[in-house]
Amino acid sequence: MFLISGYWKDDKSEFSNYLVSEYDDANPHNDVDIFYYGLSESEIVDAIRQGEETALEFVITEYKPF
């Protein structure tokens, strides 16, 4: 799992430390809300490289392991 920061494409509002997981069943912290499922570390790195060219509704600008 990773914490991502970035902004929404539509209004450019920023967000930080949103939790993402590669798998939808990988939540060992049941008390923590996961923002987005289905992003591996390599996909996060690729999304940062692509910027606004991804199919995501948001742009990831940085990440760190959770």
Order of helices and strands: EEEHE
Low-confidence stretches: none
What's the gyration radius in Å?
Answer: 11 Å
Please give the domain count. Answer: 1
Overall average pLDDT: 91
Q: What general form does the structure show?
A: globular
The spatial strand order of the largest sheet comes to 3-2-1-4
Structural class: alpha+beta
Which sheet architecture does the biggest sheet show? Answer: 4 strands, mixed
- Distance linking N and C termini: 6 Å
* Helix proportion: 10-25%
Quick one: how many beta strands? 4
Question: What percentage of amino acids are in beta strands?
Answer: 35-45%
Number of contiguous helices:
1
Structure description:
With 66 residues, the protein is an alpha+beta fold. The protein has one domain. The protein contains one helix and four strands. Strands 3-2-1-4 form a four-stranded mixed sheet. The longest helix is centred in the last third of the chain and has 10 residues, at 41-50. 14% of the residues are buried.
Key features?
66 residues, alpha+beta, four-stranded mixed sheet, 4 strands, 15% helix
Provide a compact summary of the structure.
With 66 residues, this protein is an alpha+beta fold. 15% of the residues lie in helices and 38% in strands.
Write the layout of secondary structure elements.
Blueprint: E1 2-8, E2 14-21, E3 36-37, H1 41-50, E4 58-65
